Structure formats: C-alpha cells, structure tokens
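Form 7-S
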Amino acid sequence: MTKGKPWHLKEGFLLGAGLIVMGLVLQLSIGPINWSIFTWPVNIVALGVLVAVIVGMYLLRRRVVAFQFLATFGAAVPALAYGTLLTIVMGLTRQEPDGSWLSDMLTFWPFVLIYTYIELILGLVILKQISVAIARRSPLMLRPSFIAHLGLFMALAAGTLGNADMKQLQMWTTNNPELANRYAGSDAFHQYERFALDENGRHVELPIAVELKRFIMEMYEDSVTPKRYASEVIIYSKASNHQYAATIDVNKPVTIDGWKIYQKDYRLTDAGDECQISILELVSDPWLPWVYAGIFLMLAGALLMLFTGRGKELRVES
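Output:
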C-alpha cells in the first residue's frame, strides 16, 4: 500500500462480516430482495452501473486505500470464504420461493451483498490484470488467471441479474378438453395449449403452443408405481411458423425457441388411458448461455493453469 497502514486478512474478514450485518439489517427493515424489479432492461442497466463503479474504484485506487486493498488476496480470500459458507448453507437447505431467510437464499440480502462484493473484487482484479498486460505488452488471453477470473465474473453476473428474467411455468395438456376442464377446473384448455400458469396462478400466453397427441404410461408388473410416463406432443413455433413432433420424457426435456419443456407430472382419470392429463413444466432462462460461457472460461483457465503452471499472479506496483 502506498498510504496508511497495510490491510491484510483481518481487515478482509471484518469487511465481509460488516456486509453480512448490513444485509441482516436490510432483511429486517425492508424485507427480501424483490428480483422482479430487475427484469430486462433494468438488469442490463444494473450491470452497466456495476461495471462503471468498478472502473471508478480502480481509477481511484491510489487515493483510497480500501479500493486498492480490494484487488489483493487479503480481500479475496475472506470474501470467498464467506461466499462458500453461504453457498454450503444454500445447498443444505431446501430452496423454495417465498421461503424463510435461508430457504430462499437468492432473495437473502447477506447472500446477495457478499456475492456483489466478490464481483467488485473480481472486476478490480481483472482491470489490474489488463493494466499489467498492457504495460508488459503481453497477450491477455494467454494468462490463465485472467481467463478464469473473467469467466467467474461472467457466470456470477449472468446468474444473479439474469435470475429476474427466468420464467418457470406450468402447463396442463390433454387430448380431451372437456375432461381437463372437469378435473383441473380451468377454461384455458384447447386442442392445443398456448397458455401456462406462473407461480401466482396467472395465465401467461406463450410464443409456442403444445398439442398432446398421446400420454404414455408404463407400469411395473404387479405394482401401481409408474415405470415411465411421457407425452407425445406437437409443438407449434410462432417464431418459425413450423410445427415439431416430440416425445417429452421425465429428465429428457425438449428445447424450442429458448424454452425447455419438461415432463413434470400427470393426473389419472376414469376416462381411460387415451384421455389423461399431462402436466408440463416450461422454463426460459435467456441469460443461461452467458452463465455457460463463464463456466467454460473458468474451466479453460483452470486447464491452462494445470498445463502451463502459470497460475501465480504477477506482482505489480500499486
């Protein structure tokens, strides 16, 4: 550090703890984070603001000791420790919408603040690496640590800000609309279904439509447990003005026009095997390709570190 007493791991853990306390205060005072306000284009604006803040902090790093500290291991290690701990809690706790604090971690302020803190650190480290590469006239994409850091930054940013644009809907389909109305109590069924239900039970019109041709049910011998259930469907695409035949099995979704269609459930009726109700789940996550791209860069950086042994960061004069 150029000014003041150097900061180390102790200060890093204190900063992380302070963010957790701040998050708990926000959780108690204003409630969980409402991600619905970050739907497109607000989320891309938020990402632009985050990048601008990171650039501003980097430019002021020589004047503000804290900004300079954030690009060091003393800040990174505690931040990753807190992030890992919260992620473990998330993995050990059943996650469900509108759950308690720990059962809905994506809306839990301490969790989001810690990961935003990690994003700030990553951004400053990336800018530091770019500055070093320019000064030494070395190609950035040959530096494994830069590739890994960039990938992690992309994956975290897309995974959090893109969460607001993710849609998870439920669609009831049948080849007998009258039967569906009687069992589901809904008037939204047609020969082909172009509406689905969101988590609040509201009907959402889709850019695709699904027609159930046949519901497949295979049972184990001498048992009432299903061995397999699936739906043979025709999917109509509004974008391409084409129709596609597909079979949707459990754990074997069909992807079309950015939607993944899963076989979720079914309802047995007394109308025979040919007239059953198939419940499908439709998921759209437009930011997911960016998450995958970030993960790919992280893996590429890790492999380069393994084969080249260039994982150690270059020391630069701050």
